[in-house]
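REQUEST FORM: STRUCTURE PREDICTION
Request ID: SP-0412
Submitted by: Lab K.M.
Chain count: 1
Length (residues): 505
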Amino acid sequence: MLLSLLLLIPFLGTLALLLWPGNPNPSRLRLITIAILVLQLGASLAVAWAFDPAQAGMQLQEHHAWVPGIGLDYALGIDGLSLPLVLINSALTLVSAVITRDLDKRPRIYFAMLLLITGAVNGAFLAENLLLFFLFYELELIPLWLLVSVWGGVNRAYAATKFLIFTAVSGMLILGAFLGLALLTGSVDFSLTPVLSERLAMGGQLWLLGALLIGFGIKIPLVPLHNWLPDTHTQASTPVSVLLAGVLLKLGTYGMLRFGLQLFPEAWAKLAPALAIWAAISVLYGSLAAIAQTDMKRMVAYSSVGHMGYVLLAAAADTPVSLLGAVFQMVSHGLISALLFLLVGIVYRKTGTRDLEVLRGLLNPEKGLPVTGTLMIVAVMASAGLPGMAGFISEFLVFRGSINVFPLATLLSMVGSGLTAVYFLLLVNRAFFGRLAITPPSGDAVEDARLDVRLAPVAPRETVPAIALAAGVLVVGLVPSSLGRISEVATTALAAITALPGGVS
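STATUS: Completed
RESULT:
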C-alpha cells in the first residue's frame, strides 16, 4: 500500500484543488499544494525506510488485475534503480511549488498540474507493467504542455507545440515497441520480464529496441533528437524548468535502462558500440553548443543534453560500475540542473535579462546578488565535476566503468566534461565578475556612470530551496555511499542480466 500512496496523494490532491469550493487566492492554493507535496515526500521517505538495499529484485510489490484481456495490470514495485528517482521527484516538485511566485493567471489549474505531473512520474518509476508505464508516461505530457503554453514566455506557444509534437512521437514509438513485443512473442503478458532469444528472433529484438531507443532518446534528449529542449526551457517559467530538467528528463534515461537494456539484453549487446559513439557525440555537441550561447538558460539547457549523454555511455558499457554511475549521474544532474535553473531564474527576475553580453558584476556584495552568485559558483563547480561534489563522483563512476569497454567513446566524453568547465566559466566570468551592470555600456563615461544599480534582495522562499539543493549536491559528493548503498545491488543485478553470450559485460 506504501507505493499506492505515492500515487494517491498527488492524484487526490489534484482533485481536491480542482474541486475546492469558492475562489481561493493563489497564496492559499500554494500553501495547500506545498502541504500535499510535503506529505508525498514523507511517503517517499517511508518507502525508503522500508526498502532493503541488500535485495536485488523489486520490493514492496503490489499487483491487481485491471484489464487482463489486454495485459494491463496494476503492478507496482521499487528497486535500487527507481527509488532514488522517486525521492528526487518528490523533493524537486516540492521545490518547484515553493519557488512559485507572482502567479496571477489560473493558479488553481497551475498547482493541480504540478501535482498531476508528480503523480504520473511516480507511477512511471514504479510501474512493473509495460502498458501501465506507458499510461503514466503519457499522463505527464498534457500537464507539462499546459504549464509551458499558459504560464511560459513570449514565444510559449511555439515552444509548447514543439514539445508536444516531439514527445507525442516519443510516446508513439514506445507504445509501438510494446505492442510489437506482444505481436512477435504471441503473448499479451506485458509484465516486466527479460525477453529471451529463443522467444524472439534477433531481428525482431533489434527493431523493437531501436524504436525504444529513439522514443526514449527524444525524452532524454540525445542529439539529434534534442531540438525541443532549449526552446522549451527558454520559454518555461523557472519552477517548470526545475521540474523538467530535474525530473522529467530522467523518464527517458530510466526507460532506456529499464525497458531497453533489461528487456532486450542480447540486442543491446549488439548495438552497444553504436550507442557509445552516440553518447560521445551527444556529450560533445551539447558542450560545444553551450559554449556558443549567450542566454544563460539556453546554456544550461544545452548542458543537460551533454550530461545526459553520460548516462547512455554508462548504459552502453553495461558494467556494474558504469550502471551505478548512471544512477549517480541521474541523481546528480537532477540536483545540479534544478539548482542552476533556479539561480538563473533569480537572476532574470532581479535584472530582467539573461543575456551574458549585458550582465556584469552580479557578485557585488553590496548592490548585487552575492548569495545567488556564490550558489551559482557552487553549482557550476559541481556540474564541471570538481572533487567533493555530486558531479565528480557520478562522472568518475561512469568513466571508470566504461573506459575498458569503450575507450575511445569514454575519452571523447571526458573531453566533453572538460568543455563543461569552459562554458560555465564563461557564464560566471561574464555575469558575476566586474562592475555591476545590467545594460550594455554605451562607451560614454557620463552615460555609463548611470549604469550603477542596486538589485533587490532575494526572497527567502528562493534562497532556502537553493541552499537546500546545494547542500544535496555536497552530500552526494562527500558521502556517495548513501546513494551507492541503495543502488549498488540493483545495478549489479542489471549488469548480470546482460552478461549473456555475445554481450558486452
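NOTES: The beta strands are 59-67, 72-78.
Reviewed by: T.R.
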